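> tool_call: predict_assembly(chains=two)
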Amino acid sequence: MIHFQNVSKTFKRNRVLDGISLDIGLGERVALIGSNGAGKTTLIRCLLGEYTHEGEVAIEGRTPRTHRTEVLAKVGFVPQLPPPLKMPVGQLIGFAAALCGSDPQRIAALALRLGLDVERVRSQPFVKLSGGQKQKILIAIALGREAKVLVMDEPAANLDPEARKIFFELLAERQHESTMIISSHRLNEVATLVNRVVELDMGKVVLDDRVADDVSLSGVLDCRIRVKRSEPAFAKALAAWDFRASADGLEWTGEVAGPDRLRFLGMTSRYVALIADLSLAEAEKVSLREAAT
Amino acid sequence: MKELWLTAKLDIVESLRARWFAIYCLIFGGLVALLFVFGLTESRVLGFIGLSRLLVTFIQLTMAILPIFVLITTVRSVAGDREAGVFEYLLSLPVGLAAWFWGKIVGRYLVIFLPVFAAMAGAVGWALVRGIEVPWGMFGYYTLLLATMGWCFLGIGMLVSALARSTDVAQGLAFMVWLTLLLFLDLILLGVMIQGQVAPEVAVGIALANPLQVFRTAALALFDPQLIVLGPSAFVILDTFGATGYKLFALLYPTALGAAAAGAGYLVFRRGDLP
């Protein structure tokens, strides 16, 4: 599906990519990790045909630089930093949909599933939206088309827990017909989303590991937390995850998306002294979509 | 073609919401309004009165403002978009590089030409309402001259944007281009002539390679067909081109220069790193 053969990139004597060779097959979900300057963004830009480079990059046998429109028609991209576009949201969706041959209504429907009503922000400049709203629009544009390759740079970083849960469901719906490359600084941000980890350091692949694929992208965990005393900061943090408190405020229950478990535990670890008991159990129910399939 | 128009439309929408565009419209619209308010149509210079007088002043002012404005705003927004990640995202969509680059030029061209033309057309409209005689020939030629000037400096601006990798460098380079053209209007050529190191024909040739000089001379030629104010240089120009020939040259040469610069910019853009 995706083929990198001895790809190198140099900026003014600074070798950012140094002989990268990778083959990524259909249905693989790859975490591209590494510290700042490791070469993740450069590799993604080579894949998108935006950088010239040594070596060979191909998607389904075609190079993105020379067959731009054919190749990029199959690639959905979510950047880490949303572009500061002044155009209204409706115009951006229309532009992307017209170029990609997708349906603006489908994009709007996906944004709505992520919790953003496009009709309410249609005439607002894209740059004026909040970070989370921008991310939802960009995700909806990327997923609202028949993309065989999804390239996402820290895609869930600005999303609230509820939107992240839906986002994981959306990825789950595409996991068999798409290849995903998810870039992140930290493995724990994306570990539960992927079945392969590629780590870059100084422009080289230092780790290429296939990981256990036990976590369902659309799985949900029932969570119950008992606290020693009521603490407003912890209560606020749990409320952000849509947790409900008992009458005395000492017991909290809610659901955590399977791929979000590490992030959730990371949050709770900050209040570990308060926690008397915590349980996470795979929920009996499955998502409606999974049940339908 | 669809991609080109989509990109052009995108650039127009982005520009219409940019602060520079508001200032740009304010300058040219305000210029015409001020010329009317100060009663320029009532004053007389070199026998010119009425709307001709206003148009002559307007074109002179436009020639001073438009080139630097087009150069700086073009390189600022193109290089700025590249730095801010706009290129990274929009060029990840399936749009051809030619459609993107030329679509951007088309959109930008409409955005820079239409306000200047609208200001001049507004003046003509107002003159018609007030019953002032409209010099249609002059209006038509000045319109073409403005269209050519906008195209020429837009092409140079796009080349500079393609060459420079950062907004600061692009702005500095654009300013240097403008300053060089400005200095070649009089100061440098005068120095060369005084030293007597080159033949007058060569000096005039160099001057006419400068689009700023070409526009200035063409604007002069409309109310001073013999180019008396240019002195002996007028003989070289008129002997070489003739009066009508020079008017055509003033439209064709900057158009070709703008197209060549834009074409070179496209080649640089296509061969290099996009974002």
